[in-house]
Recover the amino acids of this structure.
């Protein structure tokens, strides 16, 4: 399986290069998901509602982007990801779903070849 070791994302007119995570990045991302969800990440995953699904995406995006693209958080022109408006979130979410999720899924499949994430 050939996976690109770099992902280029264009968000709000800015271009960001996302490199493969190292082990520390990976651990920090997963830990940050727990922090951002107040330890409720698994509980949110078990609730089949649109709002819990969106909340999980918001948590994931903040964790991934905080660790892998810290400049993006600064460029959003708000004090924190949590202050991002819904319209800006939707624009960011579109790029996340179309570009980032498939790239990240390929990394997970590399780690666990028997795992199909999509």
């Amino acid at each position: 399986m050939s996976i690109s070791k770099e992902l280029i994302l264009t968000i709000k007119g800015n271009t960001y290069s996302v490199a493969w995570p190292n082990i520390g990045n990976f651990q920090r991302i997963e830990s940050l998901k727990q922090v951002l969800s107040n330890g409720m990440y698994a509980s949110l995953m078990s609730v089949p509602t649109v709002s819990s699904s969106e909340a999980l995406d918001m948590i994931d995006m903040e964790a991934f982007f905080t660790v892998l693209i810290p400049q993006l958080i600064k460029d959003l022109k708000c004090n924190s990801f949590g202050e991002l408006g819904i319209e800006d979130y939707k624009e960011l979410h579109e790029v996340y779903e179309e570009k980032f999720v498939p790239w990240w899924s390929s990394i997970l499949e590399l780690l666990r070849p028997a795992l199909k994430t999509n």
Notes: The CA atoms of residues 44 and 52 lie 6 Å apart. Residues 86-111 form the longest helix (26 residues). Strands lie at 6-11, 14-19.
